[in-house]
Amino acid sequence: MLYTSVLLQMHSKLEAVGRVPGSGAQARAWRRSYLLGYATAVIARVRAREKAAVDESKAGDADRGTSTDLVLADRSLAVRRNLVREYPHTRRVQVTYTGGGYAQGRAAGQGADIGGTAVGRRAAGAIR
């Protein structure tokens, strides 16, 4: 759910930029840079929230003498196998980025709504 929300927000912000600098390959590079900057900012914020939640949980565990550590299986090998099975003929391509798009995307990503508890925030109504 978070992924879909952030994806929609990211593309909405990119659309709001309007005409991007350059044309053709330059404009595509600027857009890729923007998206990379946005994603980088959101990932950093989500990781910070995760770390804070883990730290808070561990602090509570120490008080009770219990543990709520979450064990996650590394699925990277299974993902790689499925990728090769589904797409046996892939190739690497050279992708270019530009600095201006990255900075603007990162700034926009800092304002992305990634959930949480905002003061005075009202829950969205049901879709009718």
Architecture blueprint of SSEs:
Elements: H1 2-17, H2 25-64, H3 76-86, H4 99-110
Helix pairs in contact: 1-2, 2-4
Question: How does this model look, in words?
Answer:
With 128 residues, the protein is mostly helical. It has four helices and no strands. It has one domain. α1 runs antiparallel to α2 and α2 packs parallel to α4. It is flat, with a radius of gyration of 20 Å.
Structure described in brief:
This protein is mostly helical. The protein is 62% helix and 0% strand.
Can you tag this structure with a few keywords?
single chain, 128 residues, mainly alpha, 4 helices, 62% helix
Q: Radius of gyration in whole Å, from Cα?
A: 20 Å
Strand and helix order: HHHH
What is the mean pLDDT?
A: 82
Low-confidence stretches: none
Could you say how many structural domains there are in total?
1
For the secondary structure, the number of strands is: 0
| Measured distance between first and last alpha carbons | 19 Å
How much helicity do the residues have?
55-70%
Q: How does the major sheet shape up?
A: none
Silhouette: flat
**Structural class based on helices, strands and sheet pairing:** mainly alpha
Number of helices: 4
Strand-residue proportion: under 5%
